[in-house]
Amino acid sequence: MKHSSNGRRHFLATAAATSVAALTRSAYSNVLGANERVRFALIGCGGRGGIVAHNMISMGGELVGLCDLNPTGIAKVAKAVSHLQARKPRTYKRMEQVFEAGDIDAVIIATPDHWHAPAAAMACQAGKDVYVEKPHAHNVWESRRLARAADEYERVVQVGTQNRSCPYNSAAREYIASGKLGAIHLVKVYNLKAGSRFQLGEAGSLPRDFDWNEWQGPAAERPWHQKIYHGGWHHFWTYSGGDLADDACHQIDLACMLMGEPGFPRSVSSAGGRLAHRGDDSEVPDLLETVFEFPDFIMTLEHSNYPKFMRKTTSTIRRNDELPYWTHNATRVELYGSEMMMTIGRHGGGWVVTRLGGRPADMMYGRPGDQPHCTDFIESVKSRKKPNASLDKLHPSISLLHLANIAHRTGNRKLWWDDAKARFNGDDDANAMIRREYREGFEFPAS
Fold first, then answer.
1. Cα(259)–Cα(106) distance, rounded to whole angstroms?
2. Global pTM?
3. Does pLDDT of 47 surpass 90?
4. Could you tell me the fold of the domain covering 166-447?
């Protein structure tokens, strides 16, 4: 533990004074030519990380490094992308080794959620551009700190909310801006998914040579458990904001994009809890209703993990000229204008505008945004333009989910947000949850 902590402190103390000093915005723009491939490394070789790495190679990147505490994950990704490039990527066990490598331009952060922002901030300090999976931060405070690091070190940071690179979503935003829907005073965001009870069961044996302390990183320390490592971390506040933060982030960010980036709300209130699966081992709600109050409109967020008939938009619909059956679509957004209503799906669901009686007025089919999102990142690394899902947009939208969880965790009450002070008005319990405590040796990188 001491070796790992000391190594990280040494890295954080020296990164800004070495590689970053040599990579100002003007200097870095000369590193890559328009036709050169962006050299990147993947940190976190789970299922999602491998998909993003595959898309990044397909869109013009070159995978030069793979990093994970588990060598099995590294081997799977290496095999999956072997047909896309001749070069075999190097392997790393520690992310600090990736950040110190001089031939790596950018990194993909696809670790569990509790490592997203700290790892991304360390990458910025080391002069690397960053594609970080959603949600990009475990809490409101570290989201703001990551945005500060990206600005200070002049790094491109793209968040993995692909809706911002989907042409059909851009068309929807333009349609709304045209005024055809009329004035919009109500937006409904849905994350109504199926689910089941969560039971930890037997802890199992810690794999040989696996560094559980490093995996936990900044999170509160707890004993090894095989089910926590294999995805069960989504059920615990120390690692995650639950499925609300992990999946509803796509719909809430899309809603904010369509509404012109409204920023933070004046108030937030939540109701719900662990109702359908009461008494199991999960800490996060399986039913939550949240209301966000903005100056000119109300946004509601409905979240569940129990109704069996609710489904995300299928792959068939996403890749063909079809629209979902909206009533049972788990991940949709509804915008209620004074003249007409728009219903829109994420990741290829398309959209439809309806008049009185449900009569269609306009519609557009959709396609997933994974590949164009990677293309946008690569182009941003080369040109130094802001990417589609930059932190100035994603900090407010993802923070809405953290505010929703805070309102729930403080007793399902209404909280008032002071945007100038970036804190709640007169509520010490709520303000204490804006950030978390970081374990010694895993403190959030200074900026």
1. 31
2. 0.93
3. no
4. Dihydrodipicolinate Reductase; domain 2 (3.30.360)
